[in-house]
Amino acid sequence: MTTDKSETISFKVDAELMAALAGVANRSEFIRSALLAALRNACPLCNGSGILRPQQRHPWDEFAASHPRAECERCHARVFTCEGRPVDHACRPRPRARSRA
């Protein structure tokens, strides 16, 4: 039989953050959801630190040189390009696969 072992994590917040959280009905669930969302969206290279280690820098420079960033003409987001075309992102519909008749 497995048991769900939860752990408690506590942290200090400043007055501004506490005031912002004051109106949240279920602060624990809100914070849990916010943390999971942030972790899912962390940079895969730096893991959210914002700093690349020296051994990560060379592969990143090579990738960035062959996939320059550009501004999306629709939503103005900064997106990577591949072979001169913006990669798929939220505002760009994916091309439909042609059905074989």
Can you characterise this structure?
It is a single chain. With about 100 residues, the protein is of the alpha+beta class. It folds into 2 domains: about 5-40, no CATH class; about 50-100, no CATH class. The chain is built from 3 helices and 3 strands. It has a 3-stranded antiparallel β-sheet, with no helix packed on it. A hairpin with a 6-residue loop joins β1 (about 70) and β2. It is extended, with a radius of gyration of 21 Å. The model has no long low-confidence stretch (mean pLDDT about 85).
How would you sum up this structure in a few lines?
With 101 residues, the chain is α+β, with helices and mostly antiparallel strands. It folds into two domains: 7-41, no CATH class; 49-101, no CATH class.
Defining key terms:
alpha+beta; 2 domains; 101 residues; single chain; 3 helices; three-stranded antiparallel beta sheet
Percentage of residues in helical conformation = 25-40%
Specify Rg, calculated over alpha carbons. 21 Å
* Unreliable residue runs: none
**SSE-based structural type:** alpha+beta
* Backbone shape: extended
Taking the sheet with the most strands, its summary is:
3 strands, antiparallel
How large a portion of the residues is in β-strands, by DSSP E? 5-15%
- Please count the beta strands (DSSP E, at least 2 residues each): 3
Order of helices and strands: HHHEEE
Number of helices: 3
